[in-house]
């Protein structure tokens, strides 16, 4: 399969360029659906059936199937974090052994790797295709609100989950992730002129300040819990007692059982006012459970290490605080490995890059892995 993929390297890079040069930020449905349309056609050319799950606001989700009873689910997202116009401002470029561009590693490189792993199997081990079902989703970067139910629906009954987030900068795979929560705190007070009649005002910003301190106090790094108010807004002018204010909160947890406790504490904090007369509205919750490195995960990792040894690739693994769709498959009890895409780094930034030699290498690893898991069936 590696020889086949080596002959396809330039073809892979051309597809990568095409995908990177399409703006597909999470809020740009047209761009995500354009990427989805290209990939749909390419998978259909191989013989897969593609169901398009249409969405009204976010990008459509694709369910891609070859056989009747697949035992492996692979998940790769089509959306990026970049605004419309970014692809034109800094299109796909190659400098030495690195490729650059918006979403090049997170995760358009993974889309190319997954497709060509399937192509390699079609050429060398076509029976293995019957074991694979693929979900391409359009809203991972914003929490997978529409795609989570789809991922969970098709993951049930599967024996393995392969998540196509990129490998880490050092090539490591991901075997554990922290759970993620998002909350928004909205406060209403009463506006008044801060110089003429400040005694008649009720400061929403003052109330929010109390809440921020209490929320941050929930952080316990030793237990893997972090609560961070990352964005605040409020007020109308510097000489007006603020009638409104809002805070947007990021929560990370290490264990599933921490979710209920931290959610309850956040709701308790926001249930009463510290500044009399203010009204508080809380929205949000824990939207991704933790991905836990359990015995099933370790067993699957050992299979990948064995394959890697045969290919001359030393496989290592890490835990990370970032969220991904791996949390959903892991939480319902499926052995899950993440970070199976190419190697790269500096995601979500202007310096995002992909290590070009890893494109063929990690595609080959993925193809061999699918082949091995399908043979076990």
UniProtKB/TrEMBL annotation:
Gene3D superfamilies noted in UniProt: 3.30.70.360, Zn peptidases (3.40.630.10)
So where's the catalytic machinery, residue-wise? 79, 140
- Keyword Aminoacyl-tRNA synthetase listed: no
Q: Which UniProt keywords apply?
A: Hydrolase, Metal-binding
Quote the Pfam families the UniProt record gives.
M20_dimer, Peptidase_M20
Residue ranges of every copy of the Peptidase M20 dimerisation domain listed in the record: 175-274
CDD domains linked to this entry: M20_CPDG2
Q: Which GO terms describe its molecular function?
A: hydrolase activity; metal ion binding
Record-linked InterPro entries: Bact_exopeptidase_dim_dom, Pept_M20_glutamate_carboxypep, Peptidase_M20, Peptidase_M20_dimer, Peptidase_M20A
For this protein, the parts annotated as crossing the membrane are none
PANTHER family under this entry? ACETYLORNITHINE DEACETYLASE, BLL0789 PROTEIN
Which protein is depicted?
Answer: M20 family metallopeptidase
């Amino acid at each position: 399969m590696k020889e086949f993929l080596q002959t396809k390297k330039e073809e892979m890079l051309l597809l990568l360029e095409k995908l990177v040069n399409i703006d597909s930020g999470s809020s740009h449905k047209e761009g995500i659906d354009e990427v989805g349309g290209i990939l749909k056609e390419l998978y259909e050319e191989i013989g897969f059936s593609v169901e398009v799950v249409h969405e009204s606001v976010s990008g459509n989700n694709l369910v891609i199937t070859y056989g009747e009873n697949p035992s492996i689910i692979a998940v790769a997202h089509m959306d990026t974090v970049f605004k419309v116009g970014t692809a034109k401002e800094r299109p796909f470029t190659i400098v030495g052994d690195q490729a650059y561009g918006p979403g090049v590693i997170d995760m358009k490189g993974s889309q190319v790797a997954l497709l060509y792993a399937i192509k390699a199997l079609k050429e060398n081990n076509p029976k293995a295709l019957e074991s694979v079902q693929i979900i391409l989703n359009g809203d991972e970067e914003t929490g997978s609100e529409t795609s989570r139910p789809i991922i969970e629906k098709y993951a049930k009954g599967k024996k393995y989950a392969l998540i196509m987030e990129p490998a880490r900068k050092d090539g490591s795979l991901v075997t554990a992730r922290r759970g993620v929560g998002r909350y928004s705190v909205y406060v209403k007070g009463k506006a008044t002129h801060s110089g003429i009649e400040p005694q008649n005002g009720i400061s929403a910003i003052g109330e929010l300040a109390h809440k921020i301190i209490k929320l941050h106090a929930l952080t316990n790094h030793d237990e893997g819990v972090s609560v961070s108010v990352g964005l605040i807004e409020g007020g109308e002018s510097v000489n007006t007692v603020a009638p409104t204010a809002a805070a947007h909160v990021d929560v990370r947890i290490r264990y599933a059982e921490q979710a209920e406790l931290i959610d309850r504490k956040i709701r308790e904090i926001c249930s009463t006012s510290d500044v009399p007369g203010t009204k508080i509205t809380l929205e949000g919750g824990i939207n991704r459970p933790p991905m836990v490195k359990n015995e099933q995960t370790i067993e699957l990792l050992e299979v990948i290490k064995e394959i890697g040894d045969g290919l001359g690739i030393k496989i290592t693994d890490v835990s990370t605080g970032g969220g991904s769709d791996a949390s959903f498959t892991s939480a319902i009890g499926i052995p899950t490995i993440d970070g199976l895409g190419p190697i790269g780094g500096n995601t979500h930034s202007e310096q995002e890059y992909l290590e070009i030699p890893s494109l063929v290498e990690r595609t080959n690893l993925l193809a061999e892995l699918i082949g091995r898991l399908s043979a076990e069936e």
